[in-house]
Amino acid sequence: MSRSIRSCVLVVAVLLLASGCTAFPFVAPSLSDEVVLRVPSGEAGAVAEQLGHRLDVADITERSISTAGDTVTVRYNPPLKGGKPSAVRPELFQAAGVLGMRPVVAVAAGSSASECTVDAPSCTVETAEKETLALGRSFVTNKHLRAAQPVDAQGQWAVQLDFTKDGAAALKTLTDAVACQDDAAQGRFAILVDGRILTAPVLSLECGGSLGDSAQIAGGLDRDEATQFAALLSTPLPEGVTVVSSKP
């Protein structure tokens, strides 16, 4: 091929590249669902950023987030599972996502549940099996959490919690408080999200042992539940975020 012909070919290629943006325009996906949130005064930008991280963990990639005054609007398409849209719970957009890990100090038969705020020195919860548990103080909270993600653990879905260096030390203190009890029957700890108990497993550790820098929340979670609990815990929201409207 002569130099002149090669030059012509190069010029044609450059022209095609230059015009490609108009020949093949990007079409943004239409977004089917919308949630409008009222947020604490002055925190719209921060909440929008926090929600973006939550939606990343929840695999909601087709979305837009905008702010106006003290409102945040999220438009999105639910993630597809098996070719069908999966359920997205309202809690994803407004729940605080507060983690608490506490020792079980007694099975409190006949007691009533009490509020398990993160700062409460003790509280009482009722499990899904109608078991009432008295809990000690919260040793591990969100400040100790490095990441949360859904994982398929040997065919069962779970939430993987990875802790910071301080978090691993706090987890060690918790496991010591549980594993070193005189009453082996109380060798359990509870994992709570927003004061709601998710699980209270028996700790299979010798006194002085440690879980290291990670733990898993398991026990009857399906993929959607594990994904959304991981999204909640990955980025806590401030108290006072409420849903104004949603569709569909």
Low-confidence stretches: 2-23
Terminal Cα span: 61 Å
Shape: elongated
Helix content: 25-40%
Rg from alpha-carbon coordinates: 24 Å
Quickly give the structural class: alpha+beta
What's the total number of strands?
Answer: 14
Element order, helices and strands?
HEHEEEEHEEEEEHEEEHE
Task: Indicate the proportion of strand residues.
Answer: 25-35%
Quick check: average pLDDT?
87
Number of helix segments? 5
The main sheet comes to: 5 strands, antiparallel
Describe this structure in words.
- With 248 residues, the chain is an alpha+beta fold.
- Helices cover 27% and strands 30% of the residues.
- The chain is built from five helices and 14 strands.
- The chain has helices at residues 3-23, 44-57, 91-94, 165-179, 223-234; strands at residues 33-38, 63-68, 71-76, 80-81, 84-85, 99-107, 123-126, 132-135, 145-153, 156-163, 189-193, 196-199, 214-217, 242-247.
- The chain has a five-stranded antiparallel beta sheet with strand order 7-8-6-11-12, covered by helices on one side.
- Strand 9 (145-153) and strand 10 (156-163) form a beta hairpin.
- The protein is elongated, with a radius of gyration of 24 Å.
- It starts with a helix and ends with a strand.
